[in-house]
Every structure is written in C-alpha cells, then in structure tokens.
Amino acid sequence: MSDRGKFNGKVGFIIATAASAVGLGNIWRFPTQAAGNGGGTFLLIYIVIVLVFGLAMLITEISLGRRTRKSPVEAYGSLDRRARIIGVLSVLVPLLIFPYYCVIGGWLVGYQAGYLVGADMADPDLFGSFTASWEAVVAFLVFIAAVAFVVYMGVTKGIEKSSMIFMPVFLVLLLVLTIYGLMQPGSMDGVMYYLSFDTDRLSFSTFPAALGQAFFSLSIAMAILITYGSYMSREEDIEKCTVSVIVIDTLVAILAGFLIIPMAYSHFSGDIEGGASLVFITLPYIFADMPGGIFVANMFFIMLLFAAITSAVSILEALSASVMDSFRISRRRATTIILLPSLAVGLILILGYGPLSFVEIAGKNLLDIFDYVSNNLLMPIVAFLSSVFIGHVVGTKFISDEVEVSGRFVTKRLYSFMIRWVCPVLVALIFVCNFISI
Question: Quick one: fold of 10-436?
C-alpha cells in the first residue's frame, strides 16, 4: 500500500514548494540572464511574466494535484484516458533531470570539501580534472544518498521538515553574502549595471529570455507541482499559497543578482558566462581575491548545496510518487526503484567527462544532452499540452472550482484567459526559441 502523506499546513506547503523552485537556476542562470538582457528592463518583464504566466501555470498544476490526489500520470488519466500521455511525458522530465542534477550536486559537495580542507579551488584547471575523477563519483554518491534519505522519510518527516530547516538557512546565507558583497569596493558600479535600463543590452531575445527563465525557475511541467499539490490540504488557499511561492522564488533570484553581478562586474567589467563555469571557475577565482574569501566561499557553497538538495528532493519525490500511485507499492520500494537506474545513469554521465568524453551530439556532452532534452524540449511540450488540455478539453471551471473550495479566486477571469489563449502561445514561443538555439 502506498504511503502518500501530506503537508501539515500552509507554511509547510509554501516552504517546501518554494524550496523546490529555488535551485541552481536562481543562482547561476538568473543573474547573468538579467545582466545580459537589459538589466532593469529584464527584471520588470520577468516580474510581470511570473505574476501572470507563472501564476496561471502553477495554479493549474497545484489544483490538478489537489483535486485528484494523484501524481501526474494518474491525475491526467483520471480526467481522460488519452491524457495519460501528458502525465507520462511530465514524469519523463524529472526522470532525465534527476541523475544529472545529482551529478552537479556532487560537484558542489566536492568543492565544499575542497574549501574545508584548504585546497586551491581557484585553479582554473581544477574543475575539468575534478569532474573526470573518482572524487566526483564519491561526491555524487554522497549527494544522492542525502536526497534519498529525505525522500525515504516521507512528506512530513522528510520533505517538509528538511525544507523548514534548509530554506531559512539558505535565505539567511544568501542575505548575509549579498550584504557582504555589496560592501566590497566597486560593488555599486555592478549594482547600477545590474539595475540600469540599458538600451544597448536590449534585444529581441530579452522577452524570450525572461519568459524562459520564469518557466524553468518555477518547476513548471516537471511533475513536481502536481505531486506537491496532491499533498496539500483542501483548507489552504491555493491562489494565496501560489503567490507566496512565486514571490519567494522571485526575490531569491533578484537577490542572487545583487550577490553575483557586483562581484563579477568589479572583476570583469561586463557580462560573464552563467552556468557551471560561473559557479565552479569564475566565482572561486573572485573569492580568492576577496578579503575573507575562503569564509565567503564556504558559506556560498553551503548555501548552494542546500538549494540543490531541496530541489533534488522534489524531483525524486515526483518520481517516487508516480511509481507509488501507478503500482500501488510502498514509498521505500518506489524510491529504490527510481534510485537504482539513476545511480547507473549518473555514473555514466560522470564518465562523459572522462572515458566517454568522445560521445557528443551537436557539440554537447552526455550531461548537456540530458539537460537540453528535458529542459528545452520536453518541458515546453508538456506545458503546452497541459494548458491546451485544461483550457479547451477539460475546461478551466475544473480548476476554478478547486481553487474556490478554500477561498475566493481573485484572478479567476484572468486565469481562464491566460490558460486558454496566452499560456499555449507563450510556451510555444519558448519551444521555438529553444529549438532554433541548438
């Protein structure tokens, strides 16, 4: 018999869902996206998008999960047998993401350990050698074991409890690091660069970039929101909880910009590359040049490690819940079924930086291929099918009725218009932009 569990209340749901959304993308993608696409203009566009597009998509998935009390495959299938394919595709997304996310989490573990033992983490060649080493395998196993432990403990004792610990610590560390960074010489020039409405940095890609960042940042179309929604009490106001999650995620992303951009600007006076190279090459170099840099680096990697763990937990939980619901088995058996192939795939991805480095498609290694297929192709497809299915097949009343069970649906008319007409178009735009960027 499956043990689905439930969140204890509104705070637990909000913190756990926000912890899921707040991940590596907030730190290593949002700041560089904002700085390189118009600064303040990007921020304004992003905020509007998350409050309109993001709100509609989150309300849809959370409400679907709460009303059906099922994970994605069974949730969609309970509405229309043909729609099970949407649930299957949505589960395929975290199935691809989880192994490589744990590999990256292992890199964080490795760098944190390196700083603790006093290694020279600013060496620009270190990252390349580490990712192909046996130490990367050990760090990967440590990270995935920590994530599995939380999920094995269940919704209340594992996911909710760990989120209530990790998320506040993450926020405090982020705030402290940001304040310290802003106190460094030249930081205000970086702040002006980050916030200025610079028309020279505006382009036709600014809106798609903000749209894509909002889409990826909020855990849309990853099976997570439907799963977490199924654990939500029907006494909690879905609309208010969703707004709270969006506000937390957006504030973290903006605050991360105040942390990253001033530091980077003071050293490089312009745009820098985001992603893994930012976290594992550029920032260690900057930390080494800062007063108290070793201490700052330790705090930074602890902060990022907490964010990575809570996000990875939500990914594994979405997969475990889907297996539990589909095969009517216990949480531990379901989680183990997911972990075994994930371990194997993760080890193969690590080999992609060593013996299997010759395996490439369109210049992408194995990890990048998994990332591209899941994030750039599958997620937009799932979101498009979901919005069309709810908006034109099931009807938005299905979602509205569930939202109104626990309170007034303030944005009801806007929601209906967005999910029927605007969201499919915006998701299609994301897909097209991702496709032509290959």
Answer: Hydantoin permease (1.10.4160)
